[in-house]
Amino acid sequence: MIDTPHLVDQYCHGVLRTELGLGTFEARLGAHLGGSVLPAAGTTFFDTQTGFAVRRWCPPLLGLEPHCPPARYLARRRELGAAEAGRRLLRASGISAYLVDTGLAGDLTPPAELGAAGAAEAHEVVRLEPLAERVADASDTVEAFLAALAEAVHGAAGDAVAFSSASGARDGLAVLPEPPGPAEVRGAAGRWLAGRAAGDPVTDPVLLRHLLWIAVTAGRPLQLHTEDPASLRGFAAATAGLGTDLVLLHRYPHHRAAAHLTGLHPHVYADLGPVLAHTGARAAAVLAEVLERAPFGKLLFSSGAQGLPELHVVAASTFRSALGRVLGEWVTEGAWSRTDARRVAAMIAADNAKRVYRLAGSR
What we know:
Blueprint: E1 7-12, H1 22-33, H2 49-57, H3 70-80, H4 82-92, E2 95-101, H5 111-118, E3 121-127, H6 128-137, H7 142-156, E4 162-165, H8 168-172, H9 182-195, H10 205-218, E5 222-225, H11 233-238, E6 246-249, H12 255-264, E7 268-271, H13 273-279, H14 283-293, E8 299-300, H15 309-333, H16 338-356
Parallel strand pairs: 1-2, 2-3, 3-4, 4-5, 5-6, 6-7, 7-8
Helix pairs in contact: 2-15, 4-15, 6-7, 7-9, 7-10, 12-14, 13-14, 13-15, 14-15
């Protein structure tokens, strides 16, 4: 057996506290898949790899048979109540530490509450864009905004284990990876502050780039949401040797590009979670492709879950199953020793994340 008794979920969000009907549950499945909020008429998001995985892994944890119909599963969920169902699901996942991105809007559990429900450690990942928007709402001048922004990012680094950026990688680094000059930054900040209403998102490429580079100087790992990691080649090169690790939060089918980039730069790591969870029954094949190219010390498990505790279970179960199949086959063939397989499994499941995020006390 290739055991991974403890997992560090290096990127996730809180879960919903409310009871969920079929429509709300499907909307959350759709959001996790990166698609529409609701399925097309006459179809269901349960007819996806993620939906099938939910029905495979979650019903037994609530006292039902695997693959039971969605309506029966959700009825049992409501019978137990959202809090009890969530506790059962999270505690059965084998996740011993959550790194929680708190940047999403909505009634999601904060890190401490998620950790309590899952009987696990929990740490905050601060999303940069909402932080900048809060600073802007409290600033009267460009000078005050820029000074407060730097102070807020460096202050957050005192408690957070990492920063994340959703639009910075996509928009801020689309043209240039290098930090913008002071005059550029002041001009962009002035235009944004003059034309925005309270709460308006930061979209200016110059400001987004400036925000990312402030985070780089703060010294915490930086999680970057990106469809295609190849677009971050320039930023990876520009940040080499500065002491800040970059963690690529990418999507299938760009796992090969992410794996390749981890081999080019010592400070670049790749997330595995959603890529494996979305491919479901094919996760072992996808994981094998990643292991063909990436150094094993550069890969990190996550669930990428938001809203539904089921997504933590699906990610953890799919990861364990895929890792066991791939490494177990290599051990059986004699290509790997069982000792090495167990060591690599522990690295990807938890040890790499503990090192990158300095989680010295984690199990």
